[in-house]
Model the fold of this input.
Amino acid sequence: MKKHVIVIGAGPGGLTSAMILAKRGFDVTVFEKDDQVGGRNKEIRLGEYSFDTGPTFLMLKNVLDEVFMEAGADGEKLLNYQKIEPMYRLVYDEKDSINPSSDHEFMKSEIKRLFPGQEKGMEEYLKREKTRFEKMFACLQKPYGSITDYFSKQFINAIPHFSLGKSLMDVLTGYFNEEKAALAFTFQAKYLGMSPWECPGAFALISYIEHAYGIYHVEGGLCKISHAMADVAVKNGAKLHLSTPVKKVITENGKAVGVELENGEKTMADEVIINADFGYAMTHLFDEGVLKKYTPQKVRSMKYSCSIFMLYLGIDKVYDMPHHAIYFADDYRTNVDDIFKNLKLSDDMSFYVRNTEGVDKTNAPEGHSALYILVPVANLEADVDWEKEKERYTELVIDTVIKKTVMKDLKDHIKAQKVITPLDWQNDYNVYNGATFNLAHNLGQMLYSRPHNKFEDVENVYLTGGGTHPGSGLPTIYESGRISANMICKKYGVKYESKNTLV
Done:
């Protein structure tokens, strides 16, 4: 008899597990609270305008290709990928901007143009970070369910490349002694919801991944990846139930035996995969007293990422802007400190704009644009009344965008608008503390010290998503789904072929 696996949440991690396990012969049922798949990777529609809710950068496309392959599908045939070159534009101020590229010669010329003499640092950066990536990434592809995993030859060989005691800025200023040049390789700390002055130096490998392998767009938006995954999972035999929220995991004698839906129905299972926000899952999906390690007190004491203020605008105009553009605050260090240390709302903001019109005409009617504007802000630990601040801050963000970009007449062309604040992330998207990048990625919450893929508190439960190992970001979330699927297969002696042979 087939073993039954329930997946709670049809986000990228849960869908990865679902389509792989269904392919390998498991009876898979996916319950999703929303009326569409994707979670924070889902589509937002405002009339004729379409937006990604969250991720817009696709890195390490090969990981996605691999998980599709292991599910018996060809991602290249399912999705229309486009490599973005230059990858994005970084704007320091009115005078200075740089266009990072995975074309290394072009990138060196950009550095030389803006920071003469710093181009030699680029060569050293590519050389040393290549080694770091080769040694460390394999460590992120295996589970860390036991402290003894730290004694593996693989991990021991990676230790010299962790840059212990160094921040991301420490590492990058070792290559580029001009701070602005270093910042061009550090803003990626925002993907982890951390300050580059506090983010562990080992995460220099994220910017290296971009420069080594490039970044990609998917026609229609990255939300289409989740739709393709869901289609593959269903084709492989998985049952997908939308608009079906799960109330709790049913446990007996410390083991999960199924789930109870919000409508009162109960479904039994051999294994349960939780693909929900970690903090939310721990505080909502188990009866009181079931969890011994991740109690409400423990969950509150953990460190969380920053949040983001999101503005989605449908406009009846097309502006000449790059696909991705990042604008630094006038006083970037103070802006970062306000987000991560001072826990206050910074009016001098950094922001990111995605304008798909240059590469993708499917997100808006002809002659129109779908603008995605992201502003990093403190999570709900900050004393900010978002019900009062929402309207004011929306106007401030729009005014700042007008001031710093070519979109001087933006207000005259807005036809549709949606705002998501940190409070909205918590209330409408079940994001604990409004921390959109989940648990922070400090050294005390990584590898063995991060919630395990095979859940410690309850047997027969596995975790996927940004709140478990290996961490947030689409490639690592896909890996969390693959790790959990492989661990379940190993438990039941199901043979499989996987690029990730480390489980």
